[in-house]
Amino acid sequence: MSKLLLLIGALLLAAGCSTEKKQVDPQPVANVGKSIISYQVNGQSRSHSATARYQPGSLVTNTFDVLSIEGRDTSSTSGREHVQIDFLKGPGRPDSEYRIISIRFTDSANNLTWGLSVQGTLGTRSGKWTGAFAGTATNQFGIPQAVITGEFSDVPN
Predict the structure, then answer these.
(1) Residue 138 in contact with residue 108, Cβ under 8 Å?
(2) What's the pLDDT at 7?
(3) How far apart are CA 137 and CA 142, in angstroms?
(4) Which residues share a beta bridge with 89?
(5) CA atoms within 13 Å, Cβ hemisphere of 12
(6) What tens digit of pLDDT does each residue of 90-127 get?
(7) 144, 21 contact by CB (below 8 A)
(8) Kind of pairing, strands 82-89 and 65-72?
(9) CB neighbour class for 60 (10 Å; exposed up to 12, middle 13-18, buried from 19)
(10) What is the pTM assigned to this prediction?
């Protein structure tokens, strides 16, 4: 796991030093048996307990089923740090049709949303959600401003 994090950190550093838009591919899940979400934002590692929230298709969701995987810093009194990965599929469609639509990250200094350049995987293992995600947020000129990459595992439905 530490070698994977070092590799991801090196890739993030290289991505932050270039003005070219780079695609960051999701990495495979390494944590097994824990309901956890681990990720890096601009090379800073974070890890939290993970939860899943399901919202069935309705007028509010434009008739799509939405699955959100979330992690929140519960150790701080403000509880401000939060990451949320949203997946979307047609109502009544199989879970294999979920596709990532956004990644949101909030802490005391940032409120970032990745929606155009996101990649993600989603699956189940023993009835629990497992997957990976990555994205690059750019400014209005297309210059990378923030990179996020991470994984979640064994998140109960």
Answers:
(1) no
(2) 36
(3) 9
(4) 65
(5) 25
(6) 988 999 999 999 998 888 777 777 776 899 999 999 99
(7) yes
(8) antiparallel
(9) exposed
(10) 0.73
